[in-house]
Amino acid sequence: SEVKKIAVIAGDGIGPEVVAEALKVLKKTEELFGYAFETEQALFGGIAIDERGTPLPEDTLEICRSADAVLLGAVGGPKWDNNPKELRPETGLLGIRKALGLFSNLRPAVVFDCLKDASTLKPEVLEGTDLMVVRELTGGIYFGDKLRRQGEFGEEAVDTCVYNVTEVERIVRQAFEIAGKRRNKLASVDKANVLETSRLWREVVNRIAPEYPQVELEHVLVDNCAMQLLRRPSSFDVIVTENMFGDILSDEAAMLTGSIGMLASASLGEGSYGLYEPVHGSAPDIAGQGLANPIATILSLALMFRLTFGYEAAAAAIEAAVAEVLDAGHRTSDIAVDKSKALSTAQMGDLIVAAI
Amino acid sequence: SEVKKIAVIAGDGIGPEVVAEALKVLKKTEELFGYAFETEQALFGGIAIDERGTPLPEDTLEICRSADAVLLGAVGGPKWDNNPKELRPETGLLGIRKALGLFSNLRPAVVFDCLKDASTLKPEVLEGTDLMVVRELTGGIYFGDKLRRQGEFGEEAVDTCVYNVTEVERIVRQAFEIAGKRRNKLASVDKANVLETSRLWREVVNRIAPEYPQVELEHVLVDNCAMQLLRRPSSFDVIVTENMFGDILSDEAAMLTGSIGMLASASLGEGSYGLYEPVHGSAPDIAGQGLANPIATILSLALMFRLTFGYEAAAAAIEAAVAEVLDAGHRTSDIAVDKSKALSTAQMGDLIVAAI
Ligand SMILES: CC(C)[C@H](C(=O)O)[C@@H](O)C(=O)O
Ligand SMILES: CC(C)[C@H](C(=O)O)[C@@H](O)C(=O)O
Known about the structure:
2 copies of one chain form a homodimer.
Chain A: E1 3-11, H1 15-33, E2 36-41, H2 46-52, H3 58-66, E3 69-74, H4 89-99, E4 104-110, H5 123-126, E5 130-136, E6 146-151, E7 154-164, H6 165-181, E8 185-190, H7 196-208, E9 216-221, H8 222-231, E10 238-241, H9 243-257, E11 264-268, E12 274-278, H10 295-309, H11 312-327, H12 345-355
Parallel strand pairs in A: 1-2, 1-3, 3-12, 5-10, 8-9, 8-10
Antiparallel strand pairs in A: 4-5, 4-11, 6-7, 11-12
Bound molecules: 3-isopropylmalic acid (2 copies).
């Protein structure tokens, strides 16, 4: 069958360790399902700053562009936190999102059975929580003009938040599509009582809504959403929102599940292209020790199979293998009750590979 | 003693009911402590839109300006939600904040003993949670230029977020002062890895910090803060942040305590002037039925005594009376376990008055 090209960005911290396990899973699916993948490693983030003097080298972009999808481990760490802007991993992250046109960030927040108790929320409140934040990723205040100037009251800084109807339409339409394939509920989050961009956002949502009559739509103000996520998390299905609100709310939503270390995410552009990465960060404190949990990265690969390649059977097989290994009681130290029995990153990866 | 002038804005929904109880408390403190208050009612919000065609009539502003402090019940309701911008209660709210120079919004999030179980968080996580969000209230994206225009990709909307050093300095300094009178911990929340206004913010915080060597400072990114509030709420003391982030985080913080219906807030300007209001909204669904809980409004009055008038003894007496009434098991329906035994708004007010 057709060879699929995957750009692999191991990145910083625990990135290389967790990506290595996902690549074992990739290889196993080649054997089992007859797929053919071609992977190419690319430098990105802190390591690219160190080795190439920029977080996003041009050839990394080329490798990503010529691939069908990107698998990313994690980037960043305290080492680069005080660098000037052009030499910071986040600058690379914003750059790659824009350069690859990844306008839509899907961040599922689900509760893993084995982690039910890891949440700080009461189990009865959490029961049934399974939501997806669809965050606009290439617009808004992240990418608008920024400046410093002298004003009447001393130096001032300016950030500009801009959205056009085209940008809003494409993300909102995608969110309606996703809701239509889930539980048919969409919450559009904005601050339309204050922001002009939010009023435009809400107009577009209301204009598109009639195309999806089966999807129940609610408009929720961002401050209220931050509360409702705590009060009734299980009542949400899909939440769609702009870049900055999505950054905040998706982290809140992921954290309330208690499963943040196990969550996968996808950043999609036009067509089937996508970048896949775990929701968790680069965890510099445990890097290089074989302690990291590779499951979020492995589930990110499953998401790539499903959303970019349409390999639903393999995606489901990977997810089932993860569930089976967890059900059998196997744990890495982050999710182990008895840390002394915790598996290493590679042991967990091997067990999942074996279970597929 | 000197006569203190209080502008009283009953507002919409349950506003008039809860304010009426706070005024009974005010009267009782005149008798007990020999204070002299002069109150003047002012129209504001939805009721002002209905009766005067604007949410913030000029004479309301005059009444507020000539007073020493403002007590506000609540404003807004579905009746005005689809009005054009100039005829919406929120527009009045933003207008009054700006006109009165109320640049600092203090929103305490504490757990009331009698409401420990009302939170969706596990009690052991919540244990000891007592934090204060200090939100900048008259700057940022709320008040920057807004516009619509035709762009390359159709209509677009723009919001501008602006902060100057003077605006940041005064709120940050106030937050350090407050932290110095509490547990000496300050978390400054920004998105300095993306926003220029946040970088300015962080510079100012770092420049002022050495003036408060006893206060332990941490910088927290807004997305991380949304997570840490859930993970370790009791580790926060004072959180200072810009307007939009403060809107979201203060609601999240209030909700996680489970006590949102009991929380008071203050909006302060230069000097001792302040506007005091409950954190909860106008609750149109229960308005006019005598069901509302007046405690948050009564505690807002106590906060006025403390912060504007320096009447610490009376403030403490009111707070002790509230605690006593709650300890004795008295509840309004929102916090009653057995709703059939719930008190009315006026009964709760009378009990607190009697207990002072
Ligand atoms: C690192 C930062 C720039 C980034 C963002 O704000 O988008 C991160 O928080 C995320 O959510 O991917
Ligand atoms: C009603 C709205 C404009 C207001 C705000 O966003 O400031 C409210 O949410 C608040 O927090 O007081």
